[in-house]
């Protein structure tokens, strides 16, 4: 029988910070999603796909790489891309270097959609988060978010 370590319960300050972060994240995600849907007719996943594709030199990504970036399964992304294809935002092509792989490409309509959505989205990000913070708080947010991401992705040396 394996002994289980006793949990290190959060103290009052840590509990307040954790609960505040969780509530902030849910409310911020909800507000940004509402703004995107209302102002641009896009969902957050639509925006993520379009912005990731628009930031590549040839506006294409392998489906597997896009799924990894979004932290989605290939199957889930494939279903979402089907809906985006039906709206003319993206196309799927065979991968030239690997016949089994697929490449997702931004269409002209997709380019127009992300260019139309981006100004309103950045304004919402500013309104609901960035402009509420001091420059020191933005720097702290940058540092802590990257520290957690590096830990969770194994880039901090903690994994594997």
Structure description:
The protein has a domain at 16-123: Orthogonal Bundle (Arc Repressor Mutant, subunit A). The protein is mainly α and 160 residues long. The protein has helices at residues 12-40, 44-54, 63-70, 74-86, 108-128, 135-152, and strands at 60-62, 90-94, 102-106. The protein is built from six helices and three strands. The protein has a three-stranded antiparallel β-sheet. The mean pLDDT is 93. InterPro entries: HTH_MarR-typ (IPR000835), MarR/SlyA-like (IPR039422), WH-like_DNA-bd_sf (IPR036388), WH_DNA-bd_sf (IPR036390). Residues 14-150 form the HTH marR-type domain. GO terms for molecular function: DNA-binding transcription factor activity.
Record keyword descriptors for this entry.
160 residues, mainly alpha, Arc Repressor Mutant, subunit A, three-stranded antiparallel β-sheet, 6 helices, 3 strands, globular
Number of strands: 3
CATH class of the domain at 16-123: Mainly Alpha
Biggest β-sheet: strands ordered side by side in the sheet: 1-3-2
Overall residue-averaged pLDDT value: 93
Helicity, in percent? 55-70%
Question: How are the elements arranged and paired?
Answer:
Layout (H helix, E strand, L loop, with lengths): L11 H29 L3 H11 L5 E3 H8 L3 H13 L3 E5 L7 E5 L1 H21 L6 H18 L8
Antiparallel strand pairs: 1-3, 2-3
Helix pairs in contact: 1-5, 2-5, 3-4
GO molecular function, one term: DNA-binding transcription factor activity
InterPro entries: HTH_MarR-typ (IPR000835), MarR/SlyA-like (IPR039422), WH-like_DNA-bd_sf (IPR036388), WH_DNA-bd_sf (IPR036390)
Protein name: Transcriptional regulator, MarR family
